[in-house]
Design goal:
With 215 residues, the chain is mainly beta. It is 8% helix and 36% strand. The protein is built from 1 helix and 11 strands; from the N terminus they run H-E-E-E-E-E-E-E-E-E-E-E. The radius of gyration is 23 Å and the shape is globular.
Length: 215
Amino acid sequence: MFTTTTLSTLLLTLSATTSALAIPSLTPRAPACTPSGPYLPSSGHAKFELIALPISSGNYTLGGTYVQAYHSTIGQSVTLLTNNQSLATIWHFDTKTGNLYFNSPVIEGNKTVQEPNTLVLYNTSVPANYPNQIPGNTPAGAMVVGTQLEGSVGQGFSFDTVTNTVTPPCGTFSACYLHNAGPYGAPGAELVWSTAGLAGAANCVDVELKAVDSF
């Protein structure tokens, strides 16, 4: 049988052994972009354009530009920024899913239908199905913002109904000037996102998107 002295000795030995072991450091996980509703729409019209407004001391010339869905491959587009309002994409909002989307004409059978293209946050800089989205001079930490035909539901966007601005469910939108931002060689500003923002990166500025009515 163990005596009280023997048990005490064993506990002290175990404690000393445990304290000598190195405790592994934990790597923080990126926040999950899966907020619950309700998802608030802008307080303006049902259709709107989105303009990028600077919120950091970066390259301000990239702010004040409109979000343009730039077709890159079948069913997918990158999101570029343009100062030509006539090129701005016309967006809608789904209060049930928090999706920002635009309607694109698609031929199905012998008729043309309007299919929704959803603004999607990808958690990587180069998703497998987006091979040309972000070129090699992208700042570290930047991830893809794209649009996808019949895209992911429940993206979780919600507008501030006072300012009509929208930010990602987690992290920060940034506008970055990227060489060959368009997959077909059109240089320009591209909308990306990151969990910490890219205000310190060259040729970038953190932005929020604001719904602008023109209808």
